[in-house]
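Protocol step 6 of 9: fold each sequence in the batch and record its structure tokens directly after the sequence line. For illustration, a two-sequence batch is reproduced in full.

Sequence one:
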Amino acid sequence: MSGRVRPRVCARVCYGQASMSITRREALALCAAPLAAQTRPRVAITVDDVRWQDIPKDRRPEAEERLLTHLGKTRAFLFAIGQSVENPEGSGILKRWSAAGHRIGNHTYSHRPLFGKIAPEEFEADILRNEDVLRSYSGFRRWFRFPALNEGGTRDLRDRFRSFLARHGYRNGAVTIDASDWYYNQRLLARMEAEGGFDATLYRQPYLDHIWDRARFYDQLSRDVLGRSAPHTLLIHYNLLNSFFLGDLLAMFRSKGWGIIDAEEAFSDKVFTRQPDTAPAGQSLIWALAKETGKFENRLRYPGEDGVYEKPVLDRLGL
């Protein structure tokens, strides 16, 4: 049967008008294929900070090589902190990621979150200062990610920053799947420093379990709030942990039936134009959209993700 006939057949099957020229099983299979494509979860990788200095010095070159190798043909979005990359090493990272087809986004120059003591005008200047650092790289795009996903403690501040970003041609590089990989990395580094020869692979399965738990949570929330599985943007960080296990993380998603998509493809979805009416503003975009409805309070902890939730898990495992 040709591809031209298939949509018509599917429509007739769905309305109980299938032709007898094909079997019922064949007709149902034709209808199921596009439905499965629509409901299959998809995830893109977004990487924050580029704090290469936090990786032990003797492991930095191999960590950088492994991160790019893990991603392969998958195109990620790298949200860089200016003060971390305004140096030869950081510049080399941005050049290599740009050359590999990854996109570079703005994560402020100094990574001072809005819940700290920073004036609004200082925060805005920090964004523009970082643009001056990043704009020369071929991968740079005007997408901005708020430090700690904090977009303002009040509606007035939230709306001020939304207007500022729009005036300067930026869109919010929102996260749909938030997680605490930074905390797992922090614990791993401490163990490696305290115990020479510590087996880093002991963190592999707990880390994968954590990401999978968070992915399922936010995907189900997306289905409940939006009526569909949004193309997800996963927040992870440029760190030693992911240099070890990013490849395993991508393989895990594929083994669970999720598609891996490029970050720009994910960001092209209309959900990333949404501006939830919440204050304090921020967290995962899916979290904020759920919060906005007022219907999911029993499922929304605040903050959405933090090391305090993961500490008992790793303590129990002796990690």
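Sequence two, same batch, same settings:
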Amino acid sequence: MKTIQRALVALLMLSSFGCFRSPPSRFYSLISQREAEVAPALSSDGVQLEVASVIFPQYLSDPRIAVRTGMNEISRDEYERWIEDPDVNFREALLADLSRELKSSNVFSSDVYPQRRGARVLQVEVLQFDVTEEGKALLKARWSTGVDRSALSTVPLTVSEFTGLSEGSSSEARVAALSSLVCEFARVVAARVTGPQ
């Protein structure tokens, strides 16, 4: 009994000295190319594009950064987290990258300016957005764009897949690789929006 009591006292003393302190959490945000580079001048007369919806899969609603460890397996580090809800962060980065690609200050979210007259409309469903332990980043999305909301139902959905490699195994490098994929996606959407209708 005395041995157990001594062990408990030792455990309490160690914990009071901070030996069991957990590491501090680190928070990450997707960085748009507009933030990473010198942004071009945006025109108020540019293309109007309303990002009507960005739907994320349930597995990405967790604030901890997802790392794919197998075809059907995801791991998460308790202390490596997104700075805000991943779907919100993705939408903000996409809006900024679309503005840059279209050189337009008229790229906006439905949450802010719903159904602005004359705006093309984009809807996005993200199917996969994660990175492997080896640093391979993947963005897979189903999306469509139309001249207005009513046209969206008649436009066939496009499935696009983007891959890249992180420059290292740190969470910072992995998030940078994911940010680059959002930029690539914005480039493809911008080409569709400005191409022949």
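Proceed to step 7 once all outputs are recorded. Observation for sequence two: The two ends are 82 Å apart (CA to CA).
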